C-alpha cells in the first residue's frame, strides 16, 4: 500500500487477521486488540495463552474502527484481501502495515512472519523462532516410517454433502508435505484462485485418498456423510484413516504456532511416534491422539 512510518518498537499493536495474531504469539508480542469474530475461542488455545488478555475489535470482515481508535494503537496489522478498502481509515488511526496471508502456503507464511517482525523491530527474534521451528519440523519428518507412502487430503465438510478441498500448495498441504506426509497429487487441481475448492462426495471419491484429515467445528461435522454409500466406499473410511481435526487450528490460525501443532498432530495421528526430545503441547506422544 506504499510506505508508512512506524515506531521503533511498537507497544500497542492491533491485529486484524487470525494468522497475524498467531505470528505475534510466536514472537511473544501481546496485542492490545484483535479481531476474534465475536468469540475468543476462534483463536486456538495455545495462541490465547501466549498473548494474554486482549480487546476484541470486531470481525475480520468488518473491524470496529471506533473500538480500534479507542485502544490508541501505535501499529495496526491488516490484510490486503480483507482491508485494502479501509486502509485510509485505519491509517488515520495509527500507522498501518498491510500484508497478504489469507491464502499463503508454508514459505509465504514464513516470509510474512519475517515482515511482521520487521515492522515490530523483532527480526532477530523471528529468525530465532523460525530456526527453532525448522528443527522441530525436521524432527517430525523423521517420525515418518520408511516406505509409508499413504497420501493425505485435508477437507472441510460443507452443506448438502459437499467437501471443501484444501488444494496442493495450500497452508495445510504445505505443512504436511514439509514433514514428509505425501499429499494427494490430484489436489493440484485445486484451487483456481484461492487455496480450496468445493466438490461433491463423488468428486472426493475420484481423488479417493489414503488418509483424510477432516476439519470440523460446531457447525461443520461429518454427520451428514456417514450414512452415504459414497462416503462408506472411500478408501480412507474403509481403512479407518479418517481423522477429525480442529478447523480453528488447521485452517484459520495459519501462523508459526499452528504450524508446529499441525505437524505434531498430523504425524502423531498417522504414525503414533513422537520425535526425539519430546513434543509440543497438544498431542500425547504415547497414543498419537490429543492430550488432555
Automatic annotation (TrEMBL):
| Comp. bias (Gly residues) | 275-292
SUPFAM superfamilies attached to this UniProt entry: Helical backbone' metal receptor
Q: Which Pfam families match?
A: Peripla_BP_2
What are the boundaries of the region Disordered?
A: 273-292
Q: Which UniProt keywords apply?
A: Signal, Transport
Task: Please list the residue ranges annotated as the Fe/B12 periplasmic-binding domain.
Answer: 12-274
Q: Which family does it belong to?
A: Belongs to the bacterial solute-binding protein 8 family.
Protein name per UniProt: Iron complex transport system substrate-binding protein
Q: What is the lineage of its organism?
A: Bacteria, Bacillati, Actinomycetota, Actinomycetes, Pseudonocardiales
Amino acid at each position: 500500500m506504499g510506505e508508512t512510518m512506524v515506531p521503533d518498537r511498537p507497544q500497542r499493536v492491533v491485529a486484524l487477521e487470525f494468522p497475524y495474531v498467531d505470528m505475534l504469539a510466536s514472537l511473544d508480542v501481546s496485542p492490545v486488540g484483535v479481531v476474534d469474530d465475536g468469540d475468543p475461542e476462534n483463536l486456538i488455545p495455545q495462541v490465547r495463552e501466549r498473548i494474554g488478555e486482549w480487546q476484541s475489535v470486531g470481525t475480520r470482515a468488518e473491524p470496529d474502527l471506533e473500538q480500534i481508535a479507542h485502544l490508541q494503537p501505535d501499529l495496526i496489522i491488516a490484510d490486503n484481501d480483507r482491508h485494502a478498502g479501509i486502509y485510509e481509515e485505519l491509517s488515520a488511526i495509527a500507522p498501518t502495515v498491510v500484508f497478504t496471508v489469507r491464502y499463503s502456503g508454508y514459505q509465504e507464511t514464513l516470509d510474512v512472519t519475517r515482515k511482521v517482525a520487521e515492522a515490530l523491530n523483532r527480526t532477530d527474534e523471528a529468525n530465532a523462532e523460525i530456526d527453532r521451528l525448522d528443527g522441530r519440523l525436521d524432527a517430525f519428518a523423521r517420525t515418518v516410517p520408511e516406505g509409508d507412502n499413504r497420501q493425505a487430503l485435508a477437507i472441510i465438510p460443507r452443506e448438502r454433502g459437499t467437501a471443501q478441498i484444501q488444494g496442493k500448495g495450500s497452508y495445510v498441504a504445505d505443512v504436511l508435505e514439509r514433514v514428509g506426509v505425501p499429499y494427494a497429487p490430484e489436489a493440484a487441481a485445486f484451487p483456481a484462485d484461492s487455496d480450496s475448492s468445493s466438490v461433491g462426495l463423488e468428486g472426493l471419491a475420484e481423488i479417493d485418498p489414503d488418509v483424510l484429515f477432516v476439519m470440523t467445528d460446531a457447525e461443520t461435522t461429518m454427520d451428514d456423510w456417514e450414512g452415504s454409500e459414497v462416503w462408506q466406499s472411500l478408501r480412507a473410511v474403509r481403512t479407518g484413516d479418517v481423522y477429525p481435526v480442529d478447523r480453528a487450528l488447521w485452517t484459520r490460525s495459519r501462523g508459526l504456532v499452528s504450524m508446529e501443532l499441525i505437524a505434531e498432530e498430523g504425524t502423531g495421528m498417522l504414525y503414533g511416534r513422537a520425535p526425539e526430545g519430546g513434543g509440543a503441547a497438544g498431542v500425547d506422544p504415547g497414543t498419537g491422539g490429543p492430550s488432555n
